[in-house]
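Ticket #4471: structure export looks truncated?
Reporter: QA, pipeline team
Priority: medium

Steps to reproduce: submit the single chain below to the structure queue and open the exported record.
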Amino acid sequence: MEWRDQGILLSARRHGETSAIIEVFTPAHGRHAGVVRGGTSRKIAPILQPGAQLDLAWRARLEDHIGAFSVEPVRSRAAVAMGDRLALAGLNAVTSLISFCLPEREAHPPLYRRTEVLLDLLDRMDLWPLAYLRWELDLLEEMGYALDLTRCAVTGATEGLCFVSPKSGRAVSAAGAGEWADRLLPLPDVLRGAGDAADAEIAVAFKTTGYFLELHLAGDLGGKPLPEARARFVEAFSRRL
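Actual output as written to the record:
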């Protein structure tokens, strides 16, 4: 069995004396792990940094074996990430969430394309938090937890939407919320695709997407805690306000 693809490196860990086990995200083969022979060498180790774009060839005797990768660098994102704490925290949040959420070896081409575009914006921290927020919405949708923010779940109105139901993920208007308003999640305009937004509004939106990532998505994955990297990024972003 063998295939060739490009992919984003999610993680790498030492395996034995000279090898490494890497996990990558590819458009055609999804989240996929394999061994890199000589992965701890001076030649290869610098390539195996989270976020790196790699040309990959995978081989195994049987399809269900872990198999071995040969890797060639396409471009590195390490220098950009290491030069900015918020960029590094954002990169770690993205790679950790993909590893956490996606089933192994299941292709998600649209999410892959959006992830690649997002990571290529790491040198634009003026744009990146909003792009990352939209990526979290894409991730929720890809995993089957899309938020329906087009009309009020109670009244059917399309105006005056300011809350999100924590149970259904649907928008609720002020009139529809009534006395239940304090039990609902905030719906800032940025979550409805209203264009640019101030950092403070994006921070509020992170509370809403974070609720669905943690309580719904993570809850349905056996109750495993959401990766701490996501909270660290949101905290680093909030300190910038």
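Status: closed, not a bug. The export was complete when the record was re-opened. Leaving a note from the reviewer for reference: The domain at 2-76 is CATH 2.40.50.140 (OB fold (Dihydrolipoamide Acetyltransferase, E2P)).
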